[in-house]
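Archive transcription. Copying these from loose printouts into the bound notebook so they stop getting lost. Printout 1 of 2:
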Amino acid sequence: MKLYSWNINGIRAALRSGDLLNFIQQEQPDILCLQETKAQPGEAIIDLPQYYEFWNSAQKKGYSGTAIFSKTQPLKITNGFPENIIKKFQITGDEFGDPNKEGRVQTAEFDKFFLVTVYTPNSKRELSRLKLRQKHWDPGFLAYCKQLEDSKPVIFCGDFNVAHTELDLARPDSNHKMHGFTDEERAGFQAFIDAGFIDTLRLFKKGNGFYTWWTHFSNARARNVGWRIDYFMASKSLKSKIKNAEIYPQILGSDHCPISLTMEP
């Protein structure tokens, strides 16, 4: 079983260019999770009869959003956090809006696991959304995944908008304390590891150079001056079933590249 995740950064543009359909035809994912779809229901028509499609669009047009395409019909699809998580961690928004209305979390329940795709709020260049991340979103998302894990193993994937360690970006020294590499955001990600979840790529790839996002400036992608901010995480109980994890920097169509997780059925 091959699971893929991709921050597509605008699904309509990726469809017009042909990059998304070419990718799906080439890789034939069993399940594909997308982030930053930037489309309302009906705005992006995809002819993929072999897939069940599930969308969680932002209320604001042309912004955020997630989607799951699956060859297997899930037992259940849930959009957003449950009310108990929203209430406990006070995930109610800030001056930029309510993240619960931005289509950022989508969960598919299958027979043997939950699959969660997430588009984590960016803390912004001036760190104006760092408090939301540190105090509310990151601990709330972790608690949600642990709550799901009480029932069955969890895989969660997507754009976490943080490079976890200095190995996860090309220039850590010049980016320390910048958005996406603050101590607070990195601690939020470390909490997933401390809670027992596995950063699946690190089972197979060590060291630096494995990046999933590049700025459009200074030919950064061609020079591989990037950041790894997209991840597949999994419950420790699934470790023996995980056979591979990859990134695909050669696949174009977004400022992010796809990532994958291969598992035993």
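Printout 2 of 2:
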Amino acid sequence: MTGYDRYAIYYAPLPGALADFAARWLGWDAATGREVAHPDVPGLPRAVAGLTETPRKYGFHGTIKPPFRLAGGESAEKLHQAAAGLAARLAPVTLDGLALHRLGGFLALTPTGDASALATLAAEVVTGLDGFRAAPDAAEIARRRPDRLNPRQRALLDRWGYPYVLEEFRFHLTLTGDLPPGEVEVVETALAPLVAPLLPQPFTVDQLCLFGQAANGRFHILHRYTLSG
């Protein structure tokens, strides 16, 4: 569990049809730490590898607490123990389901129905584990393009290291990188019938994962925690 550059708390589905398809679609299985062959999907404008290059290194996930470097004096083992303790106090969240949507120029699975309980859960994790997070350096701040953020998002970036937390949080499981307008519609049309039978209805978040980013940039699932509060 040591030797990782950054850590994050993500939601990742348990092994099954959705997790298996998503790992193949992205080309990276964070649970096994292995590259996997992309599926043959007809009707795409170009190879799956090109469409999924940006999200591949993260594996299939929904962000709860974004990636961070450990603060001085903290350790991965202490983070693991704190995450386990937090999960034991937090209750599972059930939403209506998941659906394929466009978010700007990329495609993702997003919750249907009222997602406020999930936002509350994420806020508990973001704030409850923040003592383990090192403050972002100038390069990390610059990667968030602060000039494009509204004042509240910039304040969240300064306080929590990421602009899309708390009231700006929007849960999603990313499936593509940012695509040109002419491509995103085509990919959505090709992908929709493949993912539709795999989407849970309802969708329950009853466990979270500690991910670690290796030196090569790829993220790995290090631990799963059951939400049992």
